[in-house]
Design brief:
single chain, about 450 residues, alpha/beta, Rossmann fold, 2 domains, 5-stranded parallel sheet, globular, Leu_Ile_Val-bd
Length: about 450
């Protein structure tokens, strides 16, 4: 993949390639200036590959645009793409290789929290930077990670409040079996307790799961008002198909998802099983904003008119732009110098104004909830009035209690960030007494308002 540098002069191109997972991926180096090398670390193989492919492409688009405008600090940018293979151990190994062998000055990567957790000690020990583009469970602060996706109070918590007001108070929690869904559901449980909701049941399935009949049977038997879904990757398709089949002649149970975006919808093909359900994100590709129209036009001109664009893809694109903007301001390329200057950065992104919080190194972001439409997009049904300040540690427990929960999961899984058991696990719900069940929507449910958790109410 060779791209010309549009810097006003003709440059002789030299391709530098890294063979990763059997694929040769090349960046571009100009002969007159030492290139700045960065790493792109995402899954090209395994169950997360479909979701992460677009994030790679959005990152490459942003890097190519930098080179077309003359690079950064007058230097071209070279990138090396590494395959995390949907495996936290591979992510850790590839992060080490990128830093020690490829000499990258920043890594743009990771999707699952398991992969991020595996990479974290590596970037911390080497004092490098990871730009992480995906919403996550919070309960973490690292000086070597820039958190570009939503913290819990910018996605999970406002979505739960909105759902309790509009969909019902009896909730079934389902997720993939690794650190993000486990902690996310602990947050949801705490919030339900605080707001008078009820957990009708809880279940976890492997990332590779394809058989969903037993899970769906348990959900239908529990008769929840709403399902909160933290399943990631390819397992979402069989889950929604099984749920649609099981409720064909019954009341449809609305699903609010935290890891399904336009890319995942496109990969499902037949959307009848997901149309009308909900997802919580900070960005939807249908946002009618000039910056978003420009982003979509550039992405589709480069990668194809039919390609869908998702929240993590937009966050990855914004992450590269923030990094480059920071380098230009700092006049330096070292991770330590970049980190200090990064905390003053803000820019107009496709989703709206994104600013890096100087205290947490998380992004201020608008919270949004969308309903799946027949064309594979989302209709925004709720949004915060303005960007929400990130709060990585939810207020329901002391920070030490959250840290204990995270550590206990890690040690309980044999010092891994995902459950190695490889089988579905079911957790009993709460008994449904008259008080626990609460009113259904339209029967006098109290208006808690999403502001109770996110600090804003909009739309």
């Amino acid at each position: 993949m060779l791209r010309r540098l549009a810097a006003g002069v003709a440059l002789t191109l030299v391709a530098t390639a890294a063979v990763v997972g059997g694929l040769a991926v090349a960046g571009v180096i100009g002969p007159r200036a030492t290139p700045i090398t960065v790493g792109i670390l995402h899954s090209r193989t395994g169950p997360m590959a479909e979701s992460e492919r677009g994030v790679i492409d959005a990152t490459v688009l942003a890097l190519e645009q930098l080179n077309e405008r003359g690079g950064v600090l007058g230097r071209p940018v070279r990138w090396v793409v590494a395959d995390g293979a949907s495996d936290e151990a591979v992510f850790a190994r590839e992060a080490t290789r990128l830093i020690e062998e490829e000499g990258v000055l920043a890594i743009f990567g990771c999707w699952t929290s398991a992969s991020r957790k595996a990479v974290r000690p590596i970037v911390e020990q080497s004092d490098h930077l990871l730009f992480y583009p995906v919403q996550y469970e919070g309960c973490e602060l690292s000086p070597n990670i820039v958190y570009l996706g939503a913290a819990p109070n910018q996605q999970i918590i406002p979505a739960v409040s909105w759902s309790l007001d509009r969909l019902g108070t009896s909730c079934f929690l389902v997720g993939s079996d690794y650190i993000f869904p486990r902690v996310a559901n602990a947050i949801i449980r705490d919030q339900l307790t605080a707001l008078g909701g009820r957990v009708a049941g809880e279940a976890y399935v492997p990332l590779t799961a394809t058989a969903m009949d037993e899970l769906v049977e348990r959900i239908v038997a529990a008769e929840p008002d709403v399902i909160f879904n933290t399943i990631n990757g390819a397992a979402n398709a069989p889950f929604f198909d099984a749920l649609a089949e099981a409720t064909r002649d019954r009341r449809r149970i609305p699903v609010v998802s935290f890891s399904i975006a336009e890319v995942e919808l496109q990969s499902m093909g037949d959307l009848r099983s997901v149309v009308g359900h909900y997802a919580a994100w900070n960005y939807f590709q249908g946002l009618d904003r000039p910056a978003n129209r420009s982003f979509l036009a550039a992405f589709r001109a480069r990668f194809g008119k039919a390609r869908a664009v998702s929240d993590p893809m937009e966050a990855a694109y914004v992450g590269v732009r923030l990094w480059a903007q920071t380098l230009e301001e700092a006049g330096r390329v070292s991770p330590a110098e970049v980190r200090r200057a990064l905390r003053r950065q803000s820019l107009e992104a496709p989703e709206g104004v994104v600013s890096i919080d100087p205290e947490t190194q998380h992004a201020w972001k608008v919270a949004r909830i969308g309903r799946v439409t027949e064309d594979g997009g989302f209709e925004v049904v709720w949004a915060s009035d303005r960007p929400v300040m990130p709060v990585p540690y939810p207020i329901f427990r002391p920070r030490s209690a959250w840290d204990d929960l995270v550590r206990d999961l890690y040690t309980g899984w044999g010092e891994r960030w995902s459950n190695p058991a490889g089988a579905a696990e079911y957790v009993a719900g709460e008994s449904a007494g008259p008080e626990a069940a609460g009113p259904r929507p339209g029967e006098g449910a109290p208006d808690r308002g999403a502001a109770g958790a996110a600090g804003e109410v909009g739309g």
